């Protein structure tokens, strides 16, 4: 089959739509995640999405719903248990390890096809079917609407927390709401790139964008563009050679990051 | 109309009383310095005025409420790689707390932000990454951030801390200019009175649950401070500086001494 024949296939098109939606959500959330230093929290949340997905597999319900439930529970737990900044790191570590262990237990008890098991960890975008796609689109729209609504206070709280508190911004409440948004986006990404590689979509594009501009708006636009290029480009590149999608998504994402680091270094020297 | 008014205000955490029966009126255009050792309730007073901390008893009112307050925090080292420019920081001043994307009033905001940045002389570096600016430049932008909301009250929480003397002067003069031009009341929490002494109308001095309000001459003298600290304290005026020497007061003296020695 040629490259263009592959593009005609239904599951490839579903995968591309899925990736486009995810790129938008992950790219939009990314700059906030990086500013708030939540990379590890995203990783922890994605492990819990894996646990939820594994539990769903065992119970015979949709993996997408399980992943969503797992990561939202994780987000709320992290928000409630790590009231102090200094606690956060260790709380995430503890929850992450436990969640991963439970996930492995659920998979061990699962008697079905083993491809499903591995997919949760490293991604299986071609496994997304139309119910998953509907869940994905609805959840993504919900995340973007809520993000737009809390955008300015969240930005205030993220870059200037002392003054935000003084001006009456509900900083604590916002951080829990944001953790839940991140949880939803993580759960969606897990289905595409897998629990282990979520950071390639949620962190790397934003980190790359923030290397080349100091403007928050420009950083968000670039972050979305980079996430889209990584997600869509990764899938397209994987088609012909038949390589794993997640490997190519992370590779494209990382190349963009390296280029942006270089550009950023040149900019700073020129300034 | 009074800008800040406290009546019979009391703040206590369990048995520990920070202050009690505090009556205080700050008039528009007045510059009030709040002094006292660590733990005397200066920051808590600030939190009460911001509406973040309820009084144990008594009443508090700020003309115009929280939205009319311009708040200037102390300078803190910002992440060098932070994706934020001075103009973004200032842009949060007028309506950063409001829900939504803030697209609708972005043109009007831009005009106000430009004017505020210009008024503190920060135009040249307003588009640079904020983490790369000096402490003095960052604090100028902080002043602009507080001014852009057109405040009736400015609450300044140690805004000069960790600035060198030249920048201390620049930042305090910007605050002073605002209150003279717009009749904004200034409540200025500080460890060191000397950098702002020429600007101060009255002093609120808090020590271990006791306090005294008055002009710098009325409060910053040996007998008043000895009474407040309940231990002999010597107040010496050297040129236009006030030096406080005494057992209980020594912790806050490090700043006076370094700034005194440097000038």
Describe it.
The complex is a heterodimer of chains A (271) and B (263). Chain A has 271 residues and is an all-alpha fold. Chain A has one domain (3-196): ABC transporter involved in vitamin B12 uptake, BtuC (Orthogonal Bundle). Chain A is 84% helix and 0% strand. Chain A is built from 13 helices and no strands. Chain A has helices at 3-8, 10-35, 39-59, 63-81, 85-109, 114-122, 130-159, 161-166, 171-193, 199-202, 204-212, 216-239, 245-270. The longest helix of chain A has 30 residues, at 130-159. Chain B is of the alpha/beta class. In chain B, 32% of the residues lie in helices and 26% in strands. Chain B has 8 helices and 11 strands. Chain B has helices at residues 42-49, 86-95, 106-119, 135-147, 165-182, 216-219, 222-229, 253-262; strands spanning 4-13, 16-26, 31-35, 57-62, 69-72, 153-157, 185-189, 202-207, 210-214, 233-238, 241-246. In chain B, helix 2 (86-95) packs across helix 3, helix 2 (86-95) packs parallel to helix 4 and helix 3 crosses helix 4 (135-147). Chain B is globular, with a radius of gyration of 19 Å. Classes of the chains: A mainly alpha (271), B alpha/beta (263). Chain A binds chain B through residues 31, 34-35, 148-153, 155-156, 159-160, 162-169, 210-211, 213-216, 219, 271, and chain B through 50-52, 66-67, 69, 71, 73, 76, 81-85, 88-89, 92, 95-102, 127-130, 145, 155. Chain B: Belongs to the ABC transporter superfamily.
Please provide a brief summary of the model.
Chain A has 271 residues and is mostly helical.
Quote the distance from N terminus to C terminus of chain A. Answer: 51 Å
The largest pleated sheet of chain A is described as:
none
- Put simply, the count of helices of chain B is 8
Strand content of chain B: 25-35%
What percentage of residues of chain A falls in helices of 4 or more residues? Answer: over 70%
The CATH superfamily label of chain B reads P-loop containing nucleotide triphosphate hydrolases
Mean of residue pLDDT of chain A?
Answer: 88
CATH fold node name of chain B:
Rossmann fold
> By CATH's scheme, which homologous superfamily of chain A applies?
ABC transporter involved in vitamin B12 uptake, BtuC
CATH architecture of chain B: 3-Layer(aba) Sandwich
Using only CA atoms, what is the Rg of chain A? 18 Å
């Amino acid at each position: 089959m040629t490259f263009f024949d592959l593009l005609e296939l239904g599951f490839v098109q579903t995968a591309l739509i899925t990736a486009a939606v995810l790129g938008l959500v992950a790219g939009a959330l990314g700059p906030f995640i990086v500013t708030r230093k939540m990379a590890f929290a995203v990783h922890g949340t994605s492990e819990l999405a894996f646990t939820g997905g594994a539990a769903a597999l065992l119970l015979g319900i949709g993996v997408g719903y399980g992943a969503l439930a797992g990561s939202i529970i994780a987000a709320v737990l992290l928000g409630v248990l790590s009231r102090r900044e200094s606690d956060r790191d260790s709380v995430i570590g503890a929850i992450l390890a436990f969640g991963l262990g439970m996930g492995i237990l659920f998979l061990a008890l699962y008697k079905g096809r083993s491809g499903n098991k591995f997919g949760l960890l490293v991604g299986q975008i071609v496994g997304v079917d139309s119910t998953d796609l509907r869940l994905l689109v609805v959840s993504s729209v919900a995340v973007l609407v809520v993000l737009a609504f809390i955008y300015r206070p969240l930005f205030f709280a993220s870059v200037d927390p002392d003054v935000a508190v003084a001006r009456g911004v509900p900083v604590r409440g916002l951080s829990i709401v944001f953790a839940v948004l991140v949880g939803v986006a993580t759960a969606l990404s897990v289905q595409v790139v897998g629990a282990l590689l979520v950071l390639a979509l949620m962190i790397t594009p934003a980190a790359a964008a923030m290397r080349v501009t100091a403007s928050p708006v420009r950083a968000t636009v670039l972050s979305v563009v980079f996430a889209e290029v990584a997600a869509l480009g990764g899938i397209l590149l994987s088609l012909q050679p038949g390589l794993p999608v997640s490997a190519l998504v992370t590779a494209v994402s990382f190349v963009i990051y390296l280029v942006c680091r270089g550009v950023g270094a040149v900019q700073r020297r020129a300034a | 109309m009074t800008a800040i008014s406290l009546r019979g205000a009391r703040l206590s955490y369990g048995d520990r009383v920070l202050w009690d029966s505090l009556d205080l009126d700050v008039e528009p255009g007045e510059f009030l310095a709040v002094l006292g050792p660590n733990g005397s309730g200066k920051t808590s007073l600030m939190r009460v005025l911001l509406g973040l901390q309820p009084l144990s008893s008594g009443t508090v009112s700020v003309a115009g409420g929280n939205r009319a307050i311009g708040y200037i925090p102390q300078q803190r080292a910002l992440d060098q790689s932070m994706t934020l420019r001075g103009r973004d920081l200032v842009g949060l001043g007028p309506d950063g707390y409001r829900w939504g994307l803030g697209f609708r009033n972005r043109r009007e905001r831009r005009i106000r932000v430009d004017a505020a940045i210009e008024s503190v002389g920060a135009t040249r570096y307003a588009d640079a990454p904020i983490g790369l600016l000096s402490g003095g430049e960052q604090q100028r932008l902080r002043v602009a951030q507080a001014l852009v909301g057109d405040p009736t009250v400015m609450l300044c929480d140690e805004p000069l801390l960790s600035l060198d003397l030249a920048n201390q002067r620049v930042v305090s003069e910007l605050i002073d200019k605002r209150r003279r031009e717009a009749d904004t009341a200034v409540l200025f929490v500080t460890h060191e009175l000397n950098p702002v002494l020429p600007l101060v109308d009255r002093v609120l001095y808090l020590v271990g649950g006791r306090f005294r309000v008055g002009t710098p001459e009325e409060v910053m003298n040996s007998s008043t401070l000895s009474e407040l600290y309940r231990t002999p304290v010597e107040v010496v005026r050297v040129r236009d500086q006030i030096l406080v020497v005494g057992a209980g007061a020594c912790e806050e003296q490090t700043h006076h001494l370094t700034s005194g020695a440097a000038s």
